[in-house]
Amino acid sequence: MAASRALAALLAVAILVLISSSVPRVMAGDPSPLQDFCVADMMTPVFVNGFVCKNPKLVMANDFFRAGLNKPGMLNAQGSAVTLVSVLQLPGLNTLGISLARIDFGPNGLNPPHTHPRATEILTVIKGQLLVGFVTSNQQDGRNLLFTKQLVEGDVFVFPQGLIHFQANNGPNPALAIAALSSQNPGTITIANAVFGSTPPISDLILAKAFMTEKDTVDWIQSQFAPAMSSNSSMGGGGNYTGGGGGGYYPGMRKKP
After folding, report:
1. Is 114 marked within a binding site?
2. Which CATH architecture has domain 67-189?
3. What is the pLDDT of residues 106-133, one digit of tens each?
4. Which residue spans of the chain are classified as CATH 2.60.120.10?
5. What are residue 179's DSSP bridge partners?
């Protein structure tokens, strides 16, 4: 009896292994290349998920080359500059699933909270020091965990794909970092710009409720990210918006007298 039970258990395990081995596996990431290279043809009118391959007979060494990463970028209002080298700047990256960026920081410079929807990022500090961090997605207990680390020259830190992250120069001198990203075109969503500077703007009443603050506060923040727009502009659903760059109403909501 014991032998038959053991045999039945062994047979069940074998069946499970067979079933699991036959289930298709879904892999996340850029498509794998099916040839040595697929240099992006930026001139074609055809749209695909990525870029159409350039005729291999017309490919040159310059298709795999990009100069100028030795030069610092022009710092923005937050005191940072990102010089990206993606498939848009280097056509030879097409289908290879990788890109990189040079990130310059002035003293107190910040690369503000943002996400890369299509890439994990690994960052190496070349000069200076940086405080870096990322926030997890919503947890079952309603929390979002923050992981931070102080980095100095030679340190490496990874930001998982899609998670909000930042880098801040909390040192007295300029800082420099190089980031590698696991996509030929990682994309960037800067949180403040996307939320407060969209075109047309998100309703300030929606944002006020989401951020649990006053409508006037949202209007002021929106005015810092986008120029003021006339109150008779469309919001895509027939509603109008008012205020200094902010949306006051949304479709289906009654206007206050």
Report:
1. yes
2. Sandwich (2.60)
3. 999 999 999 999 999 999 999 999 999 9
4. 67-189
5. 101, 123
